[in-house]
UniProtKB/TrEMBL annotation:
InterPro entries: AAA+_ATPase, ABC_transporter-like_ATP-bd, ABC_transporter-like_CS, ABC_transporter_ATP-binding, P-loop_NTPase. The lineage of its organism: Bacteria, Pseudomonadati, Pseudomonadota, Alphaproteobacteria, Sphingomonadales. Keywords: ATP-binding, Nucleotide-binding, Transport. One of its GO terms (molecular function) is ATP hydrolysis activity. This is ABC transporter ATP-binding protein. Residues 5-234 form the ABC transporter domain. The keyword Lipid metabolism does not apply.
Amino acid sequence: MQPVIEVKGVTKTYASGHQALKSVDLDIRKGEIFALLGPNGAGKTTLINIVCGIVTPSSGTVRADGFDIQRDYRETRSRIGLVPQELTTDAFEAVIDTVTFSRGLFGKSRNPAYIEKILKDLSLWDKRKAKIKELSGGMKRRVMIAKALSHEPDILFLDEPTAGVDVELRRDMWKLVRQLRENGVTIILTTHYIEEAEEMADRVGVINQGELILVEEKSALMRKLGKKELTVYLADPMERVPSELSDWNLTLKADGNELEYIFDAHEERTGIPSLLRAMSDLGIAFKDLNTRQSSLEDIFVSLVHERNGQ
């Protein structure tokens, strides 16, 4: 199946000389939720703006639904919805008017029932006659999402959509994203809330310093790079890890009250039984044990630090 988004060799160097993107290749599958992760300034927004036709690449090509984003701008833009980071709306327009107007910009015929559904899905229906300037920041964010959905796009970009908004909006937002995906809409999101990507995404891409350093199925990424962490809560604090336990590469934490052991859960022998026996032989008592699977955030931080030589 042909990817719905094809990015080939895309670079972007600004007039200042800053290279925001370094030869990015990326295919997005139709109907998937793809999470693009990266630290501030990594190039996430630049890449999204290029695909959406807002920023011109220095080199490379981008196709959306088979159409070239530069040569077939009108075709590609009609297929894409974008929720940008910035809240840019006409402060003096009513909510329902600005969303209806956005639909008209794409040449779509009036559909009051569809606009009503969007506003209700985003808990905006009761505010439909309110002017934008009267709304809270969270409500303005909802309006931006409604505007992006107004022309029924096949591809939806969400650039930090829940940054600085309330828990209720976040819940409504992800409920709506799931509904859209069920209807065949492709979702590409950037987020600082890595737990959201971990919960929602089918695949994850990590971008750092303008370079796409990894694209992987989320579940495969978790299996491949996810480690488990054993915390041993000691009965009595210790000043240092005994040399007899050096084979396990333990870390002493919490003022000497905890021992941390990182292991690969997929290995046949994790080393835990032998560690506990060795501790018993040394007379080291413990009160409790706890194991924790590495999160997507742990993996992301590890990848970025590794690339940056930290």
